Amino acid sequence: MTPNEYLLLLAGTTLPSLLVAWAVGFLVRRFAPRWGLLDHPSAAVAGDATENYSENPNVERIADAPEGFRIGSKDNCHKAHHQATPLGGGLAITLAVLAPFAIGQLLLMRINAGEGLFGWDVPEMVTVHAAGLASQSAKLWTLLAAGVILMLIGLIEDARGL
To answer: What's the distance, CA 91 to chain centroid?
Structure first.
């Protein structure tokens, strides 16, 4: 392979994922409040002076916490943001992985059927491996299905705050 073919291969495998992740990430951030996918900051981080830390059993005494960990309740002590933050970024990442694989699978099916790439020449490096790729695609989609299940569990956790 020539250096230009390597660059084309690299661009063709990374740019679609980057574009899908960017587009879906934008949509998730925009619609997260409507979908109930927001993580709200803890009272101490947000500067809510109305919280009475000495009387609330869910709140550690801030003076007893080590420096750098004095940011709120036991339940929210990991939150360091000062405003509501959209959740659901795993959806964008999952679609950024699935969409290029799905398009690649459709193109692979066309190549193996002898239909070509819509009038474009199929590179030799692809035709040599097309049959092997097709024979292994079921395993790939099994792994991707497992990833989708994990993403759905994460999305449910984001929505319910488990």
So the answer is: 5
